[in-house]
Design a protein that fits this description.
Radius of gyration: 21 Å
Strand content: 25-35%
Shape: globular
Helix content: 25-40%
Bound molecules: biotin
Order of helices and strands: HHHEEHHEHEEHEEEEHHHEEEEE
Length: 325
């Protein structure tokens, strides 16, 4: 469902959580009360609760935290801003990663960012869905073009985990841990995930699309569809624009430096946050199941698993990991 300009403007007006009369909304939007009423009816599709009270008007209880591209840009450090070619905030997309796949070539050394209020087809690792309710969580993707093919990108998704953890710490979110290959955990439950996709020439110029999803204020109705323990940031009152800017501040320099620095430059920090370090885990890849003790990660981002037959190394891809109860 696309958001018409009237609905978008209506949302901006109602975002403050206060009551607005039909007359007032009609005046601001330059439309009739009937047209306002129709536009409001369409907002239910976004999963929003619109409260209607006679003689007071309409409101969204608690308000909503809509993105504002200007606020995000203004919050960026000068160095990150210099590395950003384009910042787009879209209301409804299939997936922010898909939007950036379709974007034309980028200038060397600069990236493009796409944020969405709602993803109708948000994607996670291993072909899973990424639950992406309207204006609740963070759905952010950054595209960066690299020379040197996919070999240059080894360990990138793990390094991105380090960057996002740093950004969260800057905003006062302490204790975030990393689960190999690229989950972000809070209180040992999933706070966010990273999906890196690569397009272009696998041996030459290619594009990495780094998709980051962070649970900020997960609505109860959407949470019911999540098939694993999860956590959000609702107790800390983190604003989504501040989070987006903090992530871009860390992520853009990382993407710029990655061809020279590689994952090696982030490895110690990753290890320090490793939730499973020294613990007994089960690793699944297709039909294969391997049990062992999780050791560190190497310079390429592969996980060392101490199994019956000795230390074995596994790289990301279609692999999942869980702790043995
Ligand atoms: C995971 O499975 O843990 C990875 C989740 C990645 C979700 C983000 S949200 C922004 C971007 N767009 C998508 O469709 N997926 C990623």
């Amino acid at each position: 469902m696309a958001l018409t300009p009237t609905r978008q403007r209506l949302l901006q007006l109602l975002a403050d959580g206060e009551f607005h009369s039909g007359v007032e909304l009609g005046e601001v939007l330059g439309t009739s009360r009937t047209a306002v009423w129709k536009a409001l009816a369409g907002l239910d599709d976004l999963g929003l609760t619109i409260e209607r009270v006679p003689r007071r008007g309409y409101r969204i209880p608690g308000g909503i935290d809509l993105h504002d591209a200007g606020v995000i840009r203004a919050a960026l450090s000068a160095s990150a801003r210099a590395l950003l070619d384009d910042l787009r905030v879209l209301a409804v997309v299939d997936s922010t990663n898909e939007v950036l796949k379709a974007t034309a070539g980028l200038p060397p050394g600069r990236g493009a960012c796409c944020l969405a209020e709602w993803q109708t087809g948000g994607r996670g690792r291993l072909g899973r869905r990424w639950i992406s309710p309207f204006a609740s969580n963070l759905y952010l993707s950054v595209a960066w073009d690299f020379d040197g093919g996919i070999a240059v990108l080894e360990g990138l998704s793990l390094a991105v985990g380090v960057a996002v953890r740093r950004a969260l710490l800057r905003l006062g979110v302490a204790g975030v841990q990393l689960k190999w290959p690229n989950d972000l955990l809070r209180d040992r439950a999933k706070l966010g995930g990273i999906l890196v996709e690569v397009t272009g020439d696998p041996e030459g110029r290619c594009r990495a699309i780094v998709g980051i999803g962070i649970n900020v204020a997960m609505p109860a109705a959407a949470a019911a569809a999540i098939g694993q323990p999860w956590r959000d940031l609702s107790d800390l009152g983190v604003r989504r624009d501040a989070l987006a800017a903090a992530i871009l501040d860390q992520l853009l320099p990382l993407l710029c430096e990655f061809p020279d620095r590689g994952f090696g430059g982030y490895r110690d920090e990753w290890e320090a946050a490793h939730v499973h370090g020294g613990r007994r885990v089960v690793l699944s890849a297709g039909n294969q199941r391997v049990e062992g003790i999780a050791r560190g990660v190497n310079e390429r981002g592969a996980l060392g698993l101490e199994c019956a037959e000795g230390l074995r190394w596994f790289s990301g891809g279609e692999v999942s990991l869980r702790e043995q109860g």
